[in-house]
């Protein structure tokens, strides 16, 4: 029987036993009331950060919509000016050919 014990690697067995012990203790610590309170506070902070980010995003979107609307107006004015200039040029060409 003592010969069987010679083949057991006691160092690896000890490491395994310590891992099981720390794992069991870790589960107890992570599921405690204090840990749950920490998780709740961290989740609440994340939700507050999300709200802050969403307010900033909506502000940026509103500004982008305003900029887009103003850019469309500018382009429409330029197109109208270009059309008027082209119409005047065609009238002058028509008068010059007469």
**Rough outline:** rod-shaped
The end-to-end distance, rounded to whole angstroms, is: 125 Å
> Which stretches are low in confidence, meaning pLDDT under 50 for 5 or more residues running?
none
What composes the largest sheet?
Answer: none
The overall average pLDDT, rounded, is: 84
* Topology order in helix (H) and strand (E) letters: HHH
Radius of gyration, Cα only, in angstroms?
A: 38 Å
What percentage of residues falls in helices of 4 or more residues? over 70%
Beta-strand content bin: under 5%
Contiguous helical run count: 3
The figure for the number of domains is 1
Alpha-beta classification: mainly alpha
**Number of β-strand runs:** 0
Keywords:
single chain, 98 residues, mainly alpha, 3 helices, 93% helix, rod-shaped
């Amino acid at each position: 029987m003592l010969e069987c014990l010679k083949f057991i690697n006691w160092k690896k067995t000890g490491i395994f036993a310590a891992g099981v012990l720390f794992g069991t203790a870790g589960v107890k610590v992570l599921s405690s009331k204090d840990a749950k309170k920490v998780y709740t506070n961290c989740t609440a902070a994340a939700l507050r950060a999300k709200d802050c980010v969403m307010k900033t995003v909506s502000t940026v979107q509103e500004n982008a919509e305003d900029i887009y609307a103003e850019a469309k107006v500018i382009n429409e004015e330029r197109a109208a000016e270009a059309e008027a200039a082209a119409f005047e040029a065609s009238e002058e060409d028509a008068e010059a050919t007469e």
